[in-house]
Amino acid sequence: MTAALELSEVRKKFGQTEIIRGVNLSIPKGERHALIGPNGAGKSTTFNLISGRSTPSSGSVRLNGTEIGGLKPFVINRMGLSRSFQITNIFHRLSVFENLRCAVLWSLGYKYSFW
User: Fold this and answer.
1) Which CATH code fits 3-78?
2) Under a CB-based contact definition with an 8 Å cutoff, are residues 60 and 34 in contact?
């Protein structure tokens, strides 16, 4: 049976510093898993490697048997893997549309300045 998500000897280096050192993980279809550890353990970096925000220095990341390491996040998303972020910056008094409009304006270079 093919794993839904499989990491094999995944490594990530930033310059000479190796942050992720040979992660092996196999998650069967229908299973849910948690990645826990102290600050600085590499949890966010591992999620970045899985979701395509970062490219592995070496090793393999497979989704349903297909290599996804190094693919763009939107390609991985279209293959069925999505990611949510822990920190959300929304304005609670604005509508969904207004929050999205703020995000688009921010991405276009329009910034809020108190002064």
Assistant:
1) 3.40.50.300
2) no
